[in-house]
Specification:
Number of helices: 22
Structural class: mainly alpha
Largest sheet: 2 strands, antiparallel
Strand content: under 5%
CATH superfamily of the largest domain: Hypothetical protein af1432
Order of helices and strands: HHHHHHEEHHHHHHHHHHHHHHHH
CATH topology of the largest domain: Hypothetical protein af1432
């Protein structure tokens, strides 16, 4: 069944914050209210001290999760505006109105701000470190004489083995941001559905499958009922919300170009080597266009800098190349959405928005260059070793501590101390939802999530400082 914008842009919320305000008192749209709730939240502010690529870097020009999220928010809103205007101008959907356009832009602006809000410290490696720990250590843990892996349902185990920041984001904004009640930020259905990048549980993941929407988990077992309530109401069960494709494209544009710029500024790749790599990638490409040629753009910007007497023409060229790539990539993403509009609305489109466009090879090339020159650099590898040590040590301490928390079994002296280190806010959320559990195994699962909640909420600096304090490193 084809999805429709009337239900896709649902302004419903999970619950209520209490006092209602009349429309004459508050002229904001529901999605504008979402925006203000997000930017006023502590979890959003913490993104300023979370890694995008370079952990604990003090340079003011290196991007953090916060600056990245602001960039994604900006790109997403602009993409939404371009796409919506194209749909209107070409009469592609009779139910698509000017109001639809405005609401889409507002939702995408908000989605860009929170799309990474569930990521743990130390970038994507933080996710890998958590997954690795549970795969290695969980099989050796017991609860009341039974292996934990035999007590938990398969989906609960896979949530831990395949721990995913995207699923944690949904949990963060719907439960862990405890402001008024257990509904978290209490955001609109449309916004929540947009950030669910993968509309499947962990047991359905197909990492090498053709459909990009099935490559990771989009929600944990703890939020499965919530997901189905939202998806059923909006008619998206098992399918991506159309705006998710736009959000993902905005994210791709932001980080692919930013990683190149940051890698250059950090000295991981020289101007000459970058130019050479872009030329080689262009020569290998089958689908290409003179309208989007990074090597040619780089050359033009360098010549322009020399002509203008810029002190550092190479840096000028790299910075301006990325800026000029943005418009070309956004054009391709707009084309990717509008040319596949019916399949996207039917929920049968399986690719990203750059697939089949002349931006596809550009995105692949930028990602490949960043991976080989930055992500495999000695500095990043050293950071990952340090991050692995910090997160592994915390999991070694906190997971055993939570096993018998909130049970009839008295905690050991050190376990009691570790439990007191976990934020009272997270413990409060645990107690609210554990009271609704009928089985002890469900509570055990929530206690394990209590640890990942605590760690995921940490900033890089806090994680490092807590590790040092716990280990007597002054």
């Amino acid at each position: 069944m084809r999805m429709n914008w009337k239900t896709l842009l649902s302004a419903k919320r999970i619950g209520s914050y209490g006092r209602t305000v009349s429309a004459s008192e508050d002229l904001r749209s529901e999605f504008e209210k979402d925006y203000h709730r997000i930017i006023g939240s502590a979890s959003f502010r913490r993104l300023q001290d979370k890694t995008q690529v370079f952990a604990l870097d003090k340079s003011d020009f290196i991007r953090t999760r916060l600056t990245h999220s602001l960039e994604v928010s900006s790109f997403a809103r602009s993409l939404g505006q371009n796409i919506a205007q194209y749909i209107l101008d070409n009469h592609m959907d009779r139910d698509f109105t000017l109001e639809t356009k405005y609401e889409i832009c507002e939702i995408l602006q908000c989605a860009g701000l929170i799309h990474d809000i569930g990521n743990p410290p130390f970038g994507h490696f933080g996710e890998e470190a958590i997954r690795d720990w549970f795969c290695r250590k969980l099989p050796g843990l017991t609860f009341q004489g039974q292996p934990v892996t035999e007590l938990l349902e398969d989906q609960m185990l896979q949530d831990l083995y395949l721990f995913e920041g995207n699923a944690q984001a949904l949990r963060q904004v719907t439960k862990l941001h405890f402001l008024v009640n257990e509904n978290g930020m209490n955001l609109t259905y449309a916004l929540l559905n947009t950030i669910i990048k993968y509309p499947i549980p962990s047991v359905s993941v197909k990492p090498d499958g053709r459909n990009i929407a099935f490559r990771k988990a989009g929600y944990f077992a703890a939020e499965q009922e919530l997901y189905h309530r939202i998806a059923k109401d909006m008619g998206t069960t098992g399918r991506r919300h159309p705006l998710t494709f736009i959000l993902e494209a905005a994210d791709d544009i932001a980080y692919r170009t930013a990683d190149i710029e940051d890698a250059f500024k950090k000295g991981f790749i020289s101007y000459e080597k970058l130019r050479q790599e872009l030329i080689l990638a262009r020569d290998r490409a089958t689908e290409k266009s003179s309208q989007l040629d990074p090597a040619a753009i780089l050359d033009r910007q360098y010549q322009n800098a020399v002509k203008r007497g810029i002190n550092n023409p190479k840096q000028y060229a790299v910075q301006n190349m990325t800026v000029r790539l943005h418009s070309g990539l956004m054009f391709c993403a707009t084309y990717g959405f509008t040319s596949n509009y019916l399949r996207i609305m039917d929920g049968t489109y399986e690719h990203d928005l750059f697939h089949g466009t002349y931006a596809e090879w550009v995105m692949e090339a930028l990602g490949d260059i960043a991976y080989r020159y930055a992500f495999n650099s000695e500095q990043i590898l050293e950071m990952e070793v340090s991050a692995g040590t910090i997160l592994g040590n915390m999991l070694d301490r906190f997971v055993p501590a939570v096993l018998y928390y909130d049970t009839s079994v008295p905690l050991k002296m050190m376990d009691r101390k570790f439990m007191r280190l976990i934020s009272e806010n997270y413990r409060q959320v645990y107690h609210i939802y554990s009271k609704r559990c009928e089985r002890e195994e469900e509570k055990l699962y929530l206690r394990l999530l209590l640890v990942t909640d605590f760690i995921s909420g940490m900033t890089d600096s806090y994680a490092k400082d807590l590790y040092q304090r716990m280990n007597g490193i002054v």
